[in-house]
Amino acid sequence: MTDVLKGVFNESYGTARALKLNGGQITAGKTGTTNSSKDVWFCGYSAYYTTVVWCGYDTPRAMPGTYGSTLSGAIWKNYMNQIHQDLPPKDFEKPDTVCLAKYDSKGNIIDGTEVTGDRKRSYGMDYFATDILEDTTEYVDNETDQSRQNKARSKLEKFEKMTITSIADYYTFTETYNTLKNMIAVIKDDDVRKEYSTRCKDKYDSLKDESVKWKDVVKAYEEQRSEENTRLAEEAAAKAKEERETQTRKTRIALAQTRIKKLAGYDSQPSNVKDLLEKAEQAVEACKSYSEYNTLHSDYIRSRQKLLALPKEGDPTSGQSDTDSGTDNSDTEKDGGKSMDKRVQDSVIAKQEKAARQQELLEKKRQARAEYNISGGRSGEQREKKHQEQVLKKQQKQLEIRQEKQEKKKKRFSKSFQKAVAFDDAEGVSVSEWFLSVCWIKIPVIGFIYVLVLALSKKTHPAKKNFARGYLIYRCLVLILSVTVLYVLYQIGLNFIDQMLSFVK
């Protein structure tokens, strides 16, 4: 494990290659980053110390552009450099119970040679426990060379009968060929090994042309499968997002309903009435984008008014007039502010009375309409039609008002600017007009807007319009080229810095 984690610092693909310690100190470690970078870690250790750094918020939230190798990695490197300042470089000690051994394509250990010193672990070798290696080596040594020959011959006979007529055949042919080469390579009898190798190669060469043709087919198939997997993944992500949004909606609506219901369940004002109202309002406002918002908001207003009209806890006389209760404002202050302010209370009561009167009037209007309809008045369809006509008239009037305002704005538009973009189809563009256009273009910001007007306006002379469109294309190409050159220079600079740092170290 330590050998693998050393690669995080030493390999070109390592995520912590920029976090190497000073003085050539040997380290191993691992970066860690959660979804949306809400938590970032760096865990690293040397032969002397082990340090773990975490960065994030107690209440998780995203930290865009932050990874385990950036913020937490920088803190880890700074701290470890300080505590290793006077310590010589020291490599990790490999346990006596672990050794390096070679293995074949199936994972079988075929040799138990030990590699020590500064030599890097080579291809085809890996770490094994010593006791497992001894048992496996003994098993391999006990297997006769004749059994290897028999297995290889059986595999070779099947391989010689193969043909490629489908994608599945291509995969089977390629896999069998690679497996067969490994089986033949471990045969100790030179004559048999050469014979089997020749037969295997001849069969492969005989289908080489077919293999090349099917390779292109397989490539196209794998690309199609990759695109299909990508599409399925995107659909799954979209479905998951929709489900999350649906669940969030249900949760928010349920929370708002619960808090509104809580407000309506009191017989007197609690001491934390302000906090209850704030929480309920927040829950309702969180549902502002949903269709249930209007209903929730109306329920909240009613519950709020009802709660504010209630007497406070421990003050049964609150809610009555001063003459009825026999108290005044000074008495209220002496009671510790347990009763509502009289003016606020009167205002609430007045609003409630007004709402009741409006409701009563509305009810009377409904009854009058019902009686009118019963006595031969307009039908429901006629009333609905008239209502729609009124709505359409209102919308039309609003549209006319907006159009009128827009016309007024157009008339107030700068005459010089209009002259710069206006043209007469019967005449060309004069030198003065071109001069004025160039002057407009050279003005920062305004010049860009002017070019857009020339390119998009229907009143612009064709010559000016073509010039403006060509100018816009030119500016876009210059911008793209500039960004590309800067990006290439940035990458070259980074590579140069990495090479210089590697050379210095």
Notes on the structure:
Helix 5 packs antiparallel against helix 6 (190-206) and helix 16 packs across helix 17 (462-504). The protein is extended, with a radius of gyration of 42 Å. The relative contact order is 0.03. The chain has a three-stranded antiparallel β-sheet with strand order 1-2-3. The chain has helices at residues 2-10, 68-83, 130-142, 145-160, 167-185, 190-206, 208-263, 273-285, 293-308, 322-325, 329-334, 342-374, 380-412, 415-421, 431-442, 446-456, 462-504; strands at residues 27-33, 39-46, 50-56, 98-103, 109-111, 125-129. With 505 residues, it is mainly alpha-helical. Mean pLDDT is 76; it is low at 113-120, 317-341, 375-379 and 420-426. The longest helix is centred in the middle third of the chain and has 56 residues, at 208-263. It starts with a helix and ends with a helix. Among the domains are: 2-93, no CATH class; 415-499.
Strand order of the largest sheet: 1-2-3
What percent of residues adopt helix (DSSP H or I)? 55-70%
Mean pLDDT: 76
- Structural class determined from secondary elements: mainly alpha
Strand content range: 5-15%
**Major β-sheet profile:** 3 strands, antiparallel
First CA to last CA: what distance? Answer: 25 Å
Q: What general form does the structure show? A: extended
What is the string of helix and strand elements? Answer: HEEEHEEEHHHHHHHHHHHHHHH
* Backbone CA Rg: 42 Å
Number of strands: 6
Tally of alpha and pi helices = 17
Low-confidence stretches: 113-120, 317-341, 375-379, 420-426
